[in-house]
Amino acid sequence: MMVVSGAFTSEAQHQNKSARTRARLMDAAVEVFARDGFQAASVNEIARMAGVVNGTFYVHFKDKDEIATRVAARIAADVIDQITSAMTDMTDALERFSFATRQFIEFATTQPQWCWVMIRAQGFHPELLRQLSGHLGQDLELGRRQGQIKTEIDLLLIDIIVAMMLVALSARLRGEAGPEAGARLSELVLTMLKVAPDHAKEIAWKDYEFKRLHLTPLPRAGKVKAIGVA
Amino acid sequence: MMVVSGAFTSEAQHQNKSARTRARLMDAAVEVFARDGFQAASVNEIARMAGVVNGTFYVHFKDKDEIATRVAARIAADVIDQITSAMTDMTDALERFSFATRQFIEFATTQPQWCWVMIRAQGFHPELLRQLSGHLGQDLELGRRQGQIKTEIDLLLIDIIVAMMLVALSARLRGEAGPEAGARLSELVLTMLKVAPDHAKEIAWKDYEFKRLHLTPLPRAGKVKAIGVA
Amino acid sequence: MMVVSGAFTSEAQHQNKSARTRARLMDAAVEVFARDGFQAASVNEIARMAGVVNGTFYVHFKDKDEIATRVAARIAADVIDQITSAMTDMTDALERFSFATRQFIEFATTQPQWCWVMIRAQGFHPELLRQLSGHLGQDLELGRRQGQIKTEIDLLLIDIIVAMMLVALSARLRGEAGPEAGARLSELVLTMLKVAPDHAKEIAWKDYEFKRLHLTPLPRAGKVKAIGVA
Amino acid sequence: MMVVSGAFTSEAQHQNKSARTRARLMDAAVEVFARDGFQAASVNEIARMAGVVNGTFYVHFKDKDEIATRVAARIAADVIDQITSAMTDMTDALERFSFATRQFIEFATTQPQWCWVMIRAQGFHPELLRQLSGHLGQDLELGRRQGQIKTEIDLLLIDIIVAMMLVALSARLRGEAGPEAGARLSELVLTMLKVAPDHAKEIAWKDYEFKRLHLTPLPRAGKVKAIGVA
DNA sequence: GATGAATGAGCTTTCATTCAT
DNA sequence: AATGAATGAAAGCTCATTCAT
Fold it and tell me: D-chain residues within 8 Å CB-CB of A2?
């Protein structure tokens, strides 16, 4: 098995050796979590894929849970960051929702590993998806304030919508759904939120240009060592 | 941890010792799968909860996979059987769908363990849910034929609806959603399928009497003694 | 796997049920010992092949060792009995030796299972072969008394000859040696014993008619139960 | 049971810790294979005798088979190497054969464990003995070319000779044969190959000086660090 | 910081054997 | 005699984690 080299590694390429090793471990973890799931993933395998011996893993992470949490946090942060930063000048709530949904599904094409990790996170690292829910909820709230959404918005509804997004993402990853899955999903959700069918269709299928997922540059400065999120 | 005693055990209480032990193992398996998931579940733990030594497990099941498959199959069969048998005289497709959805969510109250197993089955025993999808799909097709559903029905749509059901079930199990979750979900799905809002609301919130989940009596056919048959 | 039915079963077919079960167990044991060796053979497997449940095994045999010992004893007794009874009117020691050797190798054709058991017995049930050695030694001694063998005959020599016989038998069973293996072996041994080459060849390749191995009818009368040969 | 310390351990005493542990495991394996046979040998027992916990075994060997194969390979290589290197200046085929045979039997005195392993290898690690056969065959072929052996040499014959050697070795190990066993065997084989009795005796009983078996120093080539190589 | 050998608990599975029926 | 369920010890193997270097 080749030593991995992914987004974290690229990001850290001009940092010190420690940071680079850590980055390789995280890329390897993404790979392994994506392939085997959080539970079945083994530290040995992550270390092997990172090209370090198993002991080195524990220099950088307290235990398997810590790397999982950090990988999840980073994925959540970056996915959200890139979706929101691409929408800075969109003001219409429904459009924002639709774009976000479709961009999310679109990541299946450009970053399948990360997407698999998000899917695998269900049940094991719910915080990953909770962040997504948060942002989603804000746009839906905005929709209510704008008068475009009449349905009541609560946690259950948001959970339901996130679940819909994940299952569509999964179908996309497995090749069971085509490129239109995002728009399709968007239209379904809007309809469910009682947006008028024509309007729902119009917004959901609008022509957008989507981005490739990349790591959000970290505005970090000094060392950040084992913050110890028990 | 106490020795379990669940639905299978009750069902087998008047059968022979082997059947009773086997039943206890299955009840224990439900317990453990519900709590730890299929992957993390250990045969030792199942045996311990069934009150037998670990070797006994293998007298009754070839391996962990076999008991998992059997438990999953039995849960799927019984859940479906009880939902469908309660709907025999319902002819309206939307009503059937709504009733099935709500009865399904309702099981969270009466058989939480089984429901957890269904949730945990995602990804590990997809066949469990696929059976559900099948029946769901039939009612939706009926809805189309009856002219009540105009949306196109395909695999992605069905997967999405099943995902919605599972997340609602999960919310209910965790106490994050109240007794109205089923009706709520039903209305959302009907709306999503472009049923007129008023009609959707009317059907989704109709007053039904739901059943407690119980084991479907097995139509056993007498002893089957396998003497030297390969 | 079919229930076996071999020599012991035939022999016991007119005896009581207990004797028949016991016989089936022994036939099954031959089968399993031949296939897996004494060590790897499992009681469960023997019982299964005999068409009884595992508990039944212990009604008839104290433990695995007992059936092994009995099977070995019976095979040794019968092999020897049939070889010797076919030689009653042979008086020439070299001829007796040659015939015995060749008849022994010939069993590979008619009773491969028994032969495998003999081969597998090396190291685990040396008593099986020791009986063979005994009879062999007698004929060799006779050869010395007749003046045909000049070499000194001791235990090492006999062990060596038995080893030669077993390796030839094994080659025959595995199909690596043809029908002439017995004569070939016989000639080699005679030469080794310093019989004149021409004479050795003449005796070794003589034309004999060999028998098919069958069970020696037991002159038994009453029950013989678990004699407890610890 | 004491922690073992044998030939491999000595050889590795100036190597790194890993190599030393590995060596102790191999010495322990020799001990256990010699005592219990390859089949009955247990990894736990090997680890215990090596003075490590059982998990450590798997740091060094993939499974029981791997250590068995390595031990067998090493024994075969060393035995052959030492016999052949002691014969470099012998040109007479019969003498070479006789010396090799006797040196082989002689190992029973200096390395009984290794010899037991060779005997136990019959059936389980035939490749161990096959290498021996190969070298043996070469000398016999040489004997034919030199005109000293007239008998046809084929696989069966070689197998027979190897079997003779092993049974003699075994008798020697068990104390059932004295120091003359090697010469005795050698004479028997030569006679069997139709070497003239006087000549056979002369060659077989010639006075040789035999070596103690020791490990052939490995021509190691420096550290080989496997970093992330598949 | 990195190494990598070692640990030991825990897992799945097999199997000889016992025993109540 | 026969059953067959149950036992429990022991096997092979994995893996998160520790620690001396």
Answer: 228, 230
Tell me which DSSP letter residue D41 carries.
-
d(CA C61, CA C58): 5
Token representation of residue D94: 């019969």
Domains and CATH numbers, chain A: 7-61 (1.10.10.60), 72-204 (1.10.357.10)
pLDDT score for D18: 94
Q: Which of C178, C129, C123, C164 is nearest to D159 (CA)?
A: C164
* Residue that the structure tokens 């006779």 belong to: C142
B58 touches strand E (CB under 7 A): yes
pLDDT tens digits for A31-74?
999 999 999 999 999 999 999 999 999 999 999 999 999 999 99
3-state secondary structure A94-123: HHHHHHHHHHHHHHHHHCHHHHHHHHHHCC
SS (H, E, C) C20-48: HHHHHHHHHHHHHHHHHHHHHCCHHHHHH
CB atoms within 10 A of CB B174: 11
Q: Is the CB of D23 under 7 A from strand E?
A: no
Size of interface A-B (CB pairs under 8 A): 67
More confident residue, C50 or D209: C50
Distance CA A156, CA B166 (A): 12
C126 near C133, Cβ under 8 Å?
no
Residue pair D104/D182 in contact (Cβ under 8 Å)? The answer is yes
Strand E neighbours among A 75-114, CB < 7 A: none
Most confident of B56-60, B81-85, C13-17, D220-224: B56-60
Task: Give residue-wise pLDDT tens across range C18-38.
Answer: 999 999 999 999 999 999 999
Phi, psi of A193 (to 5 degrees): -85, 10
| Chain B contact partners (≥3 CB pairs within 8 A) | A, C
Give the pLDDT confidence of A150-164 residue by residue, as tens digits: 999 999 999 999 999
A159 near A67, Cβ under 8 Å?
A: no
If DSSP codes are grouped into helix, strand and coil, which group holds residue A31? Answer: helix
Q: How far is the CA of D71 from the C1' of E10 (A)?
A: 29
Inter-axis angle of helices D93-110 and D197-204, nearest 10? 40
Q: CA C23 – C1' F1 distance (Å)?
A: 14
Per-residue pLDDT of chain B (230 residues; tens, 9 = 90+): 467 778 899 888 899 999 999 999 999 999 999 999 999 999 999 999 999 999 999 999 999 999 999 999 999 999 999 999 999 999 999 999 999 999 999 999 999 999 999 999 998 999 999 999 999 999 999 999 999 999 999 999 999 999 999 999 999 999 999 999 999 999 999 999 999 999 999 999 999 988 776 666 654 433 333 333 33
Q: How far is CA D59 from CA D62, D65, D230, in A?
A: 8, 14, 17
Å from A65 (CA) to E4 (C1')? 22
Angle D3-D8-D12 (CA atoms, 0-180°, nearest 5)? 100
Token pair of C101 as six digits: 């050797």
pLDDT at D221: 39
Quick one: DSSP state of residue A151? S
Chain D CB within 8 Å of residue A35 CB:
no
Which tens digits make up the pLDDT trace of D198-207? 999 999 999 9
User: What is the full DSSP assignment across D172-222?
Assistant: HHTTSS-TTHHHHHHHHHHHHTT--HHHHHHHHT----PPPP-PPPP---S
